[in-house]
Every structure is written in C-alpha cells, then in structure tokens.
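Q: Convert this sequence to structure tokens.
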Amino acid sequence: MKKITSVQYSLILFDEATHFEWEQVEYLMSRLRSSAEGDSRMVLSCNPDPNSWVLPLIEWYLDDQGYPDPEKDGAIRYFVRKSGNFVWGETAEELMHLCTIEGQRPMTFQFISGTIYDNPPLLKENPAYLSFLEGLNDVDKARLLYGNWYARAKGANYFQREWLQKATEVPLGATLCRAWDKAAQEPNDVNRDPDYTASIKMAKCRDGYYYLIGDWDELSKEPTSGIAGRFRKRAGARDMMILNQCSLDGKEVDVILPKDPAAAGMVEYQESAKKLIERGYRTYQDPMPSNKSKLIRFQPFASAAQNGLVYIVESTFTNKSTLEAYLKELESFDGEASKIRHDDWVDCTASAFNYLSAKRVLPSFTLPNNQTINKDTRVSGLKQILHRG
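A:
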C-alpha cells in the first residue's frame, strides 16, 4: 500500500476487513486526525475468520466455543498501544499511567456481533438467503450463520487439544529436555510482529508416554499480555535468557537447539551450543534434518498425541493465558506459512518430541534377591551349566 502522509480523515470504513492486511489498517489509523468536532473513528465489518488479525482484537467478546458472548456484546473497552501491542483495560483510568505523551489518552474499542437474524429487512427482501446459509457445510454454517470465530474445517489442522491426557506430575525416572526455537528480532517499524524465541520442556517416561511441561523462567513473560514461554530479544539478550532458563531447569534437562541447514546455521548452532556446554549443560540438535518442512517435523508429535501418548501438566504453564496461547498455536498450525499465525511453539515442540522419540529410555526393573530363589531353581541352573560344560 502506498502511504499518503498528507491526508486527514475523521471516519474510515472497511467492508470485509479480514481481506485487508493489518499493516494497511494500522497505517490508516494514524490518519484519523481531522479537526472535525466529533471524535475520529474507524469502523470495520467482516465475517468470522480464525486466521485473521481481527480475532485477537475481538476475542475477549467471545465465549469458550468461539461464539459472541451476549453479556459482553457491545461493551466498550479501552486500550493504548505500546511497541505495536495492544494493552487493554476496562476503564480509561487504569491505563492512564501508560500514556507517556502529554495530552495522550486511552482509545476506545467496541465489538458488536450480528447475524442474519439481526437484519429483518434483508430476510424480508431475500428469504431464500437464509435457506442458502442453512444448507452450508458445518464449518461455514457455524461462521456465516451463527458467527463462530473458532470453527475450522476438519483436516485443516493437525492437532486437537482434546487428544492430550492430563497429568498432575511427571513420573520419576523420566528423560527430560527443553527444546528451543530461536529468533533475534524485536518489534520495529519494519516488522511489528516478528517471530518469538520460544521453548517447551518435555519428558519421556519409561513406558513410552510423553509429558508437556512449561516451568518457564519469570523473565520470559511478555510484559503486555503476561504470556510466558516466549519472548522477543536480540541475540545477546536472548542467549542470556536461554542461559537463565537452563539454570532454572538444572543440568538433568537436555537442551535442544535448532540448526539451519546453511553453513551460517551450523556456525550459529556451534556457538550457542558451546556457551551452554562450557557451563555443563548437555546440548544437542534436533535429530530430524531442519531442511524438512515444518509439517513433516510436526506430524510425529501430532500422531503421538492423537493416539493418546502425550500428557500435559497444565499446572506448569504459568497462567491460563499461557496455556491457552500454547494450545491455540498448535491447533492453528495447518502446515502452511502465514504472516498472521506464529509457529514458534510448533517448531520447538516438534524438536523436543523428535529428540526424545529417538532417545532410548531403559525400562525399570528389579534385580532378584538371591534369598528368594528356591533351592530347586539353583540346582536346576547348576545342572544346566554342568551339562553345557
């Protein structure tokens, strides 16, 4: 989009807003600066799309199934922008301390849901339209007729949270690792939403079951959302935070780092691994080649989860927001690259699983007590030895 810096608007309207890029909408927000008596505002209309940038903005207004919550519908919320992120509040007063520019005040946001049933003139003018909506497939019907923002076609993603079994703790004797997906950029004017450095801790017990664990360092928590387990820092600060996490985990937790296939990727891996190994942390790379597609790398974990082999220890995920963000990222992954969805947790989850699945865990056993072996058994064993001799 060509940026026209001289224009001034008091009202900007978008139809089918999900078809536009967030960068376009965000820039036009900066042009709401006319001298009109009324407050400048932007109005957007759209149909539900679970992959759209709109969803994070209106998700507070939805229930657990993704339908608009009638008790929140139309409620006015307040927000300020910090480093490209939205910081929300129920009142303007609770956000005033974040307004650092003289005269700045929080802005308002409102979501008003609507279905065909809220448009009687359209139903009267075109009664067949309702029949068309009723005849859609289940996913499109949930979205277009009832306004569901979470509905996805079956098979469009590769993981469902319902496949995970729940556990309160990890069995003793399990093999532990923490896998990382690394990035080295902070939000900036060119890229407001760069990749995260993310990690997940995983265990494999002796009977072949896997356990998802958070146990993140408090420093990894995002300052605006409170979500833990991922952060955006440049390489130096990032490596220090990785080292802090290793110190918290302890030396019995193996560290799994990514390695890009290019020569520079090998150098990056070796330098990062060397820093950790020098401090006594066992460090390895994902055994599956990194030139494989993200989907190929993720499918073994997804298959194990679908077959009931993966547990999750929810109490280790810092808070509800973190748990929801992690599970939603895994559920949203459809194997395709996206500018809207992140897949940093997807990548490190795949790395942790691929490492542990290739690592042999010896089953537990108990040596027999000689006092409990009866005389006949010892004599029989002696006869076999003499016979072989």
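The chain has eleven helices and 13 strands.
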